[in-house]
Amino acid sequence: MAAVDRAALEAGLRVGMPATKAQALVQGLAVMDAEPEADAQALDRLALWALRRYAPIVAAEPPDGLVMDTTGADHLHGGERLMLADMVEHLGKVGFSARAAIADSWGAAHAVARYVKQTVSVVAVNATQDAILPLPIAALRLPDAIVRGLRVLGFDRVGELLQQPRAPLTLRFGPELGRRLDQAAGRLAEPIEPVRSADVVEVQRAFGEPIGAAETIARYVGKLVQALCVDLETKGLGARRLDLL
Predict the structure, then answer these.
(1) Domain residues of the chain, as ranges?
(2) How buried is residue 180: exposed, middle or buried, by Cβ count under 10 Å (0-12/13-18/19+)?
(3) Which of 156, 165, 212, 244 ranks highest by number of CB atoms within 10 Å?
(4) Taking the model in full, what pTM does it have?
(5) Residue 119 near residue 99, CB atoms below 8 Å
(6) How far is CA 192 from CA 18, 57, 127, 181, 206, in A?
């Protein structure tokens, strides 16, 4: 089974279960061939929808998720919790069952959205590690082989791994385990490769060194806005309002 709906879950079916076993457990079970390529295309379309509606940085997280950097964008939707609730509601209207979470790290948001049984979750700033401690090790986005190996050793929860010395675990399972732990805890940055709409108009300026002075930022933002207006005019487009996030 590549995917199961809510009714199938309630009937005891799980992803990875042999189809013959699933059909034996549920009489008259409706089974359709998986279409991974079509699913990936649909996920990309959802990412573009979220890009236009919620945040400037959105990426597909196959096989069934989206990841977004909502920094500076949530206030446009009434705050983080209201934004997530709106997202889940709109997805539900078109037939998707969804859960959403906001956290300081991609790894923590992924884990909480999938393993905390709440439709909407917001992890408080600086509470990331506490939020992931009780979650199962499968929440860390580890390969199945590593998850099975950890379970053989008696590990079940993320908190149990965080209490262990890192070196023996790395020696046995490689650097992937430590990397995923650090990403989930927010100790290791994880860049998002965002989707790009074909019709998006954008301008950018790269700097060799970071800039921090407010007047310097304002000056370059002004120049970028001017360049953006030129591009919009060239394409016969315009903007009623520009929000600085």
Answers:
(1) 1-33, 35-199, 201-245
(2) buried
(3) 156
(4) 0.79
(5) yes
(6) 34, 8, 22, 18, 18
